[in-house]
Amino acid sequence: GRTMVPNVFTIELADSDYERLSSYAAALTDELVAAAEDHADAQRYVAPGPFEVRLSAGEDLETGIFRVRPAAKDGRRARSGGAAREHADARPREDRPRDDLAAYRPEPRRPADRLVERPPADRRQPPTREVPSGRPPRARAVRPALEIEGRRVPLTAAVTTLGRDESADLVLDDPGISRRHAEVRISNDGPHMQALLRDLGSTNGTYLNGDRIGDEELRDGDRITMGRTRLTFRLEG
Fold first, then answer.
1. By 3-state DSSP, what share of the chain in percent is helix, strand and coil, each rounded to 5?
2. Given CB 3.0 to 4.6 Å as the disulfide criterion, which of 14, 125, 195, 235 pairs with 218?
């Protein structure tokens, strides 16, 4: 069978401890009742009624010392309320708890079917970040570059010259390319970047996506042909 245990515990404290704990006696006894219930459930103990915890002052106790007096109390309602009150009034005055620390009985726990189930953590939606309505989102900076035979050359200057001469910013070893064949001009209009390809009067011409040009705006992925050299314009975000 299961073990029967007491369900009413009177904790006697020294006067100084009793006065110090009086301001939060209800919360303290609530925690002690919950601990007793959890322990009884874990050990499969049986109590005659709901658990109660009472605090009282013990004049013979020193500070820091306490005494626990367990008792069993039938949880069934007494047939006569007057008899129960008469029995309570018959107790000696020093054994009664003070008015401000009267026997505290917490509210019964809610049934499990009334508890609100929270969704698992992995199903919760992450918080969304909103852009303030009065401020537009910041444009992402782009970096122009030329891709030559799998190698990318960043265009960091406002003007980059391309040609066969050593004085060119980007030297291309191709006999079909003029000494100063073409140039790429980079300009910024606020958040917008513009790249312009211009032929510098080359002998064999400058071709953009197969068409010979004088000057033309560049877009990401455009193919440039000079002599037998092929380049691709890229915008790196």
1. 20, 30, 45
2. 195
Average pLDDT for 149-168: 93
Residue 53: CB partners within 8 Å, gap ≥ 6?
9, 11, 29, 32, 33, 36, 104
Average pLDDT, integer, range 53-70: 87
Q: Give a yes or no: residue 11 inside a domain.
A: yes
What are the strands, taking DSSP E only, across the chain?
8-13, 52-57, 66-71, 143-148, 151-154, 159-163, 170-171, 182-189, 192-199, 206-208, 211-213, 215-217, 223-226, 229-236
Give the tokens for residue 155.
């265009």
Range of the domain at 190: 143-236
Task: List the structure tokens of 181.
Answer: 């064949």
Last residue of a domain, one of 54, 71, 88: 71
Rounded distance, CA 180 to CA 105, Å?
A: 96
DSSP designation for 104: B
| Res. 29: pLDDT tops 70 | yes
In this prediction the pTM is 0.42
Region 85-112: mean pLDDT is 44
Kindly give, in sequence order, each residue whose CB lies less than 8 Å from that of residue 173, ignoring residues fewer than 6 positions away: 164
Quick one: how far is CA 233 from the chain centroid? 42
Residue 194, in any domain of the structure:
yes
Evaluate if residue 139 carries a pLDDT over 60: no
Supply the CATH number for residue 66's domain.
3.30.2320.60
- Of 71, 90, 105, the last residue of a domain is 71
